[in-house]
Write a structure and sequence with these properties.
The protein is built from 8 helices and 7 strands; from the N terminus they run βαβαβαβαβαβαβαα. Strand 4, helix 4 and strand 5 form a beta-alpha-beta unit. Helix 3 runs parallel beside helix 4. The protein is of the alpha/beta class and about 240 residues long. The longest helix has 29 residues. It has a 7-stranded parallel beta sheet, with helices on both faces. Helices cover about 40% and strands about 15% of the residues. The radius of gyration is 18 Å and the shape is globular.
C-alpha cells in the first residue's frame, strides 16, 4: 500500500466536485497538496480548509500557463489529472466549439500537463500518475460527441504510458468512474444509473491511489455492463442504423 504521508501531489482540477473532495482525502492522509484549477477564489477557499496546500491557478488549455505552473511546483511525488469539461451532444446537434473544448480540456490538457511532468519523473526514477477517465471512454455512446472521444483518448494514453514506463519506477493508473452528481452532470436530461456523490467517487479514487493497480472502474455492476457492451456484435448493437 502506498503511503502518502509527507508526499507532494499536484491535483489538477481541484476546485469543484470530486476534485475538491479528493483534496480533503489526500490532506487527511498526510499529503502536501498543490491545487490547480481556473477559479482562483475556489482554490483559495479550498486551501483554507486544508492543512498543507498551495494554490496554483491554471487553465490547462494554455500551454504557456501549464509550463509556468510546472516551474512553480518544486519537487513533487505525484500528479492527478482531474480537469474535465462536459456537454451532452448528439452528432446531429454538433457544436464544434463545445466539442473541441471538451477534447482540449479532457485530453489535450492532460498531454500538456504530462509533457511537463513525465520527463521529470523519469529522470528522478519515481513518480505517481493518476488520470481520471470515465466509463464513457470504453465505447461510443449516444450524445457523447467530444466527451466520449476525449475520454477514450485518455484511456489509450494511460495504456501506452503503462507499457512504456513499467520499468522506470513511475506508477501509472487510470480511474474510470460512472456518473457523479456535479454541476456538469446536471446538464443531463436522463436518469443516470448508480449516480454517486462527489465524496463517494473521491474515496474510490483515493483507494485506487493507495495501490499500484493500473485500472479501476466503478461503480459495479454498472462498470461491468459498460465493458460487456464491447462483446455485443455490431449487427446487433447498431441494428436499425
Amino acid at each position: 500500500m502506498i503511503d502518502m504521508t509527507g508526499k507532494t501531489y499536484w491535483l489538477v482540477g481541484a476546485s469543484e466536485g470530486m476534485g475538491r473532495a479528493l483534496a480533503h482525502e489526500l490532506n487527511d492522509a498526510g499529503a502536501r497538496l498543490i491545487l490547480s484549477a481556473r477559479n482562483r477564489d475556489r482554490l483559495t477557499s479550498l486551501c483554507s480548509e486544508l492543512r498543507n496546500a498551495q494554490a496554483v491557478p491554471l487553465d490547462v488549455t494554455d500551454l504557456e500557463a501549464v509550463r509556468d505552473a510546472a516551474r512553480q511546483l518544486g519537487h513533487i511525488d505525484g500528479v492527478i489529472y482531474n480537469a474535465g469539461a462536459y456537454d451532452p451532444m448528439p452528432a446531429q446537434e454538433w457544436d464544434s466549439d463545445a466539442a473541441l473544448q471538451m477534447v482540449d480540456v479532457n485530453f489535450v490538457g492532460a498531454m500538456r500537463v504530462l509533457g511537463e511532468i513525465v520527463p521529470r519523473f523519469v529522470q528522478q526514477g519515481y513518480g505517481d500518475i493518476t488520470l481520471v477517465g470515465s466509463l464513457a471512454g470504453y465505447h461510443g455512446l449516444p450524445a457523447a460527441v467530444g466527451y466520449g472521444a476525449s475520454k477514450a483518448a485518455l484511456l489509450s494514453l494511460a495504456e501506452t504510458m503503462r507499457f512504456d514506463l513499467r520499468e522506470s519506477g513511475v506508477v501509472v493508473r487510470i480511474v474510470n468512474p460512472g456518473f457523479i452528481k456535479t454541476r456538469l452532470t446536471e446538464k443531463n436530461d436522463f436518469k443516470m444509473p448508480m449516480l454517486m456523490s462527489p465524496e463517494t467517487a473521491a474515496h474510490r479514487v483515493f483507494k485506487a491511489m493507495r495501490s499500484r493497480r493500473f485500472r479501476t472502474d466503478f461503480p459495479a455492476p454498472f462498470s461491468w455492463g459498460i465493458r460487456i457492451v464491447g462483446l455485443i456484435p455490431d449487427w446487433l448493437l447498431y441494428r436499425g442504423s
